[in-house]
Structure formats: C-alpha cells, structure tokens
Specification:
Blueprint: H1 6-17, H2 23-36, H3 44-61, H4 64-77, H5 82-94, H6 99-112, H7 117-130, H8 133-146, H9 157-167
Length: 208
C-alpha cells in the first residue's frame, strides 16, 4: 500500500502500532517512526498528528514531562491541530489557569475544530455564563445543525434563556452575576464550519 495523503498515512501508522501489546510499546514505535523518518518524508501536519498522539498517550501513561514535550511539538508543527488544541484546553482547565487563558484556549480549539457540535455547545454555555447572550445563541444554533442526533436536554438552556436574558436583567432570572467585561467578548468565533471532504480511510485489515 502506498499512502497518497496524510490522512491515509496516519491511519496506516496507527494500524501498524496496534500490533504493540502495551502502551509503552506503542509510544516507542511512534517515537521511532517520528524521529527516524528522513527529512521531508512527512509533512508538518502529519508529524503534528503523531506528536499529538504521543502527547495523549503520555498523558494516559502519567508521564507529564513527555506529554508536555510532544504537545509543544504538535502545536508548533501545526497550530490548527484540533487534538493538540483540545489537550491544551483540558490541561489549562485542570491546572486552574486564569479564565481568560482558558477562554483563549477554547477559542483556539474552536478555530481548529469548527464542525465539532459538542465544542460549539461548550462555547455557547461559556458565553451564556459570562453574560454574552447574543454570542451564545449563534453557537447553539450551529451546534444544533452540526449534531447528528438530538442535543442533550441541558444543551437547550442557552436557547431558552437567552431571549429572556436579553429582555430582563440577570437578577430577575436568578442568574449568577455577570463577570467583569470578559476577554471572551473580544475573541472572534468562527461563524460557520467550512465544508471539508471526507478524509480517506485506510483499507480494512484482511481477515485472519
């Protein structure tokens, strides 16, 4: 099989890695592929996806130093890597970073994954909690269109409460007070996800 693009190459590498019986073995295999590949044989986005795989695996293993190393590599190689952006957001949340820092990470994640319905809901909820009611509704609407199934009941809060919030002060709705003018208000949010062709999949493995 001769992979013709990054998506196929990535799937093929993961298929080969599954032969390793342990997480440590899979990490070593991907590290060896990534560090020993001839210069120019892998595109930056492909290297970034492999680095993000290693960062996620290192997190699962509990190796923080390795995780941070490969997360940094993934982010530098491809700033639009959605997996790396998500992991960065999760780590900042866990570390109790400032809310403005977490919000920025969330928006960067959204820029990398504009078609993620659950992420759109997260952004809608965050905008609503911050008092950015007019920004919450478009995110909820986009999430509704992107979702392949019905949204969870709690996801309907922004769509129900936002019109009321626009007509009444927060105190009248028994809502928590709005935060001071938040940085999130000034962060651009992608309005519509771009249409992208489906990535080719690696062929199924032959039956034993």
């Amino acid at each position: 099989i001769t992979p013709t693009d990054d998506a196929m190459m990535y799937e093929l590498i993961l298929y080969r890695v599954q032969g390793e019986q342990t997480l440590s073995g899979r990490i070593r295999t991907v590290e060896r592929m990534l560090t020993s590949a001839p210069r120019g044989s892998m595109s930056n986005p492909l290297q970034s996806r492999l680095a993000a795989y290693l960062a996620t695996a290192a997190r699962e293993k509990g190796d923080r130093s390795m995780m941070l190393h490969w997360l940094k590599q993934a982010s530098v190689l491809d700033p639009t890597n959605a997996q790396a952006a998500k992991l960065t957001y999760e780590l900042l949340k866990e570390a109790n970073a400032s809310q403005s820092t977490v919000d920025l990470a969330m928006v960067r994640w959204l820029s990398a994954a504009p078609a993620d319905a659950q992420l759109r809901l997260l952004v809608a909820q965050r905008c609503f909690e911050t008092g950015l009611y007019r920004r919450a509704m478009p995110q909820y609407d986009i999430a509704s269109k992107l979702s392949v199934g019905p949204l969870p009941p709690e996801a309907h809060q922004p769509s129900v409460m936002t019109p009321l919030a626009l007509a009444h002060p927060p105190a009248a709705l028994d809502l928590p007070p709005s935060l001071p003018p938040p940085p999130l208000e000034h962060m651009p949010l992608p309005a519509h996800p771009p249409l992208r062709p489906l990535a080719p999949r690696a062929p199924d493995a032959p039956a034993p």
